[in-house]
């Protein structure tokens, strides 16, 4: 039995893949749970048309992400934090503070797309953060933690 997967399934395939499964597995597990549909000629045509449209949208999103990445490449941001006399930060700097600093510069980026290289930031200094704007577009920005 051939089915079209509606979502990624480990050890079976990715979304929109046409896979051959045993008929009992398809009828009793995949189809009732909404994980797959039967691969009829009409459903295969529909899926191929949807893939074309999705590829066009995906290309547009990627182009927008690359444009934002070009704007972000040479930006440096400064984050103020309360520190002790030795330069240790009370608390730590996290992605929320980086997202807020970027929004002040005019970039509305979700904090979940930002990752900080290295361990937790607990000292004043320069660090690097990676921003994943798209599945294929990741930009690194430098930020400096300064004492307030």
Structural class: alpha+beta
Count of DSSP E strands? Answer: 9
CATH architecture of the largest domain: Roll
Mean pLDDT: 90
Largest sheet: 4 strands, mixed
First and last CA, distance: 65 Å
What is the CATH superfamily of the largest domain?
A: Ribosomal protein L9, C-terminal domain
Low-pLDDT runs of 5+ residues are: none
Primary descriptors:
alpha+beta; Ribosomal Protein L9, domain 1; 4-stranded mixed sheet; 3-stranded antiparallel sheet; 9 strands; elongated
Describe the protein in words.
There is one protein chain. This protein is an alpha+beta fold. It folds into 2 domains: 2-62, Ribosomal Protein L9, domain 1 (3-Layer(aba) Sandwich); 69-147, Ribosomal Protein L9, domain 2. It is built from 3 helices and 9 strands, in the order E-E-H-E-H-E-E-H-E-E-E-E. It has helices spanning 23-30, 41-72, 95-104; strands at 2-5, 18-20, 36-38, 76-81, 88-93, 114-116, 121-123, 125-132, 138-147. The chain has a 4-stranded mixed beta sheet. Strands 2-1-3 form a 3-stranded antiparallel beta sheet, sandwiched between helices. A hairpin with a 5-residue loop joins strand 8 (125-132) and strand 9. It is elongated, with a radius of gyration of 23 Å.
Write the layout of secondary structure elements.
Elements: E1 2-5, E2 18-20, H1 23-30, E3 36-38, H2 41-72, E4 76-81, E5 88-93, H3 95-104, E6 114-116, E7 121-123, E8 125-132, E9 138-147
Parallel strand pairs: 4-9
Antiparallel strand pairs: 1-2, 1-3, 5-7, 6-8, 8-9
